[in-house]
Design a protein that fits this description.
By secondary structure, the protein is an alpha+beta fold. Helix content is 63%, strand content 12%. The protein has 16 helices and four strands. The protein has a four-stranded antiparallel β-sheet. Helix 10 runs antiparallel to helix 11. The longest helix has 17 residues. 31% of the residues are buried.
């Protein structure tokens, strides 16, 4: 940092210290737009080198706006590819790219980390996940083949089994996918990813007409992971499953719909917010204008009055909604 820039930051700190009761308080005051402005100027004025990299790193830490942080991180990794911090900055950039669904960019950011021994395992896993998101099945399977060949004790194995199963489903190979899901349940039953395995196995069973097995997996999921996003989906699917032929009937039910999202992560966040307040909700999946929509609902309720009472209670807590009704075929005791 140039003497002038360093003096600027030092003066900011001394000014902050004069207004604060402790060094921690002073640092909090320093982490403001004034400090950012000082480092921005240093980044503009300094030539490439250790001091410029340090100023850029400080600016990255101070930046809270995702889009701006992304630009700064890209500048850092492109300018200093061999810097000691570049691996962490690549991962930070990767997560921002995932957050804004820039999967191709995320892949490009992580690809160089395959050549680094300390980051290769994690990079293979990340690239497999990104390939899944992009629908690049063969590419994803190639990364997974390398991952499983090189790592047999990795903590990432459950996630990679789930990724491989999803890629196999995209290939139309439900039997192989089923084996991976079952391996997750056999070896990693307490891992939160087991919830996704139960959900997938219930869907595979349902698609082949094995309703009892589908119900068994949904019930196991809800019992083991009651507050998970997968459990919220399972409750919706469980209620919609046909019962045994001689024990079913059509029933009109009411639901309170609280929100609808096109991004499953948004629905997951909202379900978690409701769970924190003590409300159990489920997610209904449906196609809307060619896109999958995730509606967060509560119910089923046997009467409209029950649904209205809950809707009013939720509205008073800041969660306005509206009532929906539909006819479902359920087991005789499903709504008792």
């Amino acid at each position: 940092m140039t003497p002038r820039a360093l003096l600027c930051v030092s003066l900011l700190f001394l000014s902050a210290l004069a207004q604060a009761d402790s060094l921690d308080d002073a640092q909090k005051i320093l982490d403001t737009s004034e400090a950012k402005a000082a480092f921005q100027k240093a980044v503009r004025d300094l030539p490439r080198g250790a001091r410029h990299a340090e100023a850029l790193g400080q600016l990255i830490m101070l930046e809270s706006e995702s889009a701006e942080k992304k630009l700064l991180l890209k500048q850092f990794v492109e300018t200093y590819p061999d810097h000691e911090r570049v691996i962490q900055h690549r991962w930070d950039l990767y997560h921002i790219c995932l957050g804004d669904y820039s999967y191709s960019e995320a892949s490009r950011i992580i690809l160089p980390l395959l050549e680094r021994k300390e980051s290769r395992e994690r990079a293979l896993a990340a690239l497999a996940v990104v390939s899944l998101e992009l629908g690049k099945v063969e590419e994803g399977m190639a990364y997974l083949d390398s991952f499983f060949h090189e790592n047999n004790t990795s903590g990432l194995i459950p996630r990679m089994l789930l990724c491989r199963a999803e890629l196999q489903l995209m290939q139309g190979n439900a039997e192989r996918a089923k084996k991976d899901y079952e391996e997750i349940l056999a070896k990693y039953a307490q891992n939160p990813l087991a919830a996704a395995a139960h959900l997938a196995l219930s869907e595979i069973a349902g698609n082949t007409g094995n309703i009892p097995e589908a119900r068994t997996h949904l019930d196991a999921l809800i019992a083991a992971f009651p507050n998970s996003f997968e459990a919220s989906l399972a409750r919706g699917r469980r209620n919609a499953l046909p019962g045994e032929t001689k024990q079913t009937r059509e029933v009109r039910v009411w639901e309170v719909q609280l929100a609808a999202f096109f991004a499953p992560k948004q629905a997951e966040t909202f379900v978690s917010q409701l769970a924190a307040k003590g409300y159990v909700s489920f997610v209904d999946e449906a196609m809307e204008n060619g896109r999958k929509q995730y509606s967060v609902r509560m119910g089923y309720f046997r009467t409209r009055n029950d649904a209205e009472r809950v809707m009013q209670e939720l509205a008073a807590k800041g969660y306005p909604g509206f009532i929906r009704t539909r006819t479902v075929r359920v087991a005789e005791d499903a709504l008792d």
